[in-house]
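Z., the sequence and structure:
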Amino acid sequence: MNKEFNFLNIISNTLSNSSYLGDDCAYLDEYNIAISKDCLIEDVHFSLNYMTPYEIAKKALLVNISDILASGALPKYALVGLCGNLNEKFVKDFYNGINEISNKYNIKIIGGDLTKAPKISISITILGDYKNRNISSRKNAQNDYIVATYGEFGSSAMGLYNLQNNISENYFTFYHKNPPLYPEISNLIATKTKYPYAMMDSSDGLCDCLIQIASKSNVKIDISYDLIPKKISNKDYILYGGEDYALVIALHKNDFYNIGKLTKIGTCSNGQGVFIDNKELKYKGYNHFE
């Protein structure tokens, strides 16, 4: 079993109340608040060899915003924790990046923490509002639902490969450092859908999204590989690369056609597992503990 999944099972079985666990966001219905938290660690999620403090900060906030958008909520507030062997220039450059992204997405930074540590560690807690919005759950996919996407797959993994191999800046390296988000699509889905839906971002890869939705919803998912939006030919990167932050959605066909901007890549049916061109897809996603 993936070590992260094993740890999550231990946590779920240890807590007296684990009812909020299971999606990338917790939903606090009494307040209409979606809340999420991510940690990014130097030499695990990024390297100072090819990313500046400014670039790291921008991406750190973007990936947290993506969780809120994938829930269907509207991002509103964030707290930023920054640890490391810090100096004034690093902090200034880092918060210039935080400021740029928070202004772009109209998010207020409401606090955080600073402390010394052997390596750079970033911890962001983000809150979103879902009043009068239809919110996602991985458990919501149903028989005869359409599996759709918005965004592309494999480009970030290709960009990381280029950065690690000192290939000059190009479309893919820029994509890895500056993943595009899709607030307008998230808003359309959250406000226009009439039926329950499942939506995730591909932070840990397309394969991860499909298997998580199929497993949590207890459905079979059939995908056509040729329909997956991509700009590269490396199949491993496309299916397993991660950090693209494209949206993967399983939704009622009426909602799919009503929204009209999504790319259909497959369907849900009664059964289990994920199949691409009739071949079962086995789990292989980003492992946070390797």
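The mean pLDDT is 93. The chain has nine helices and twelve strands.

Let me know what you think.
H.
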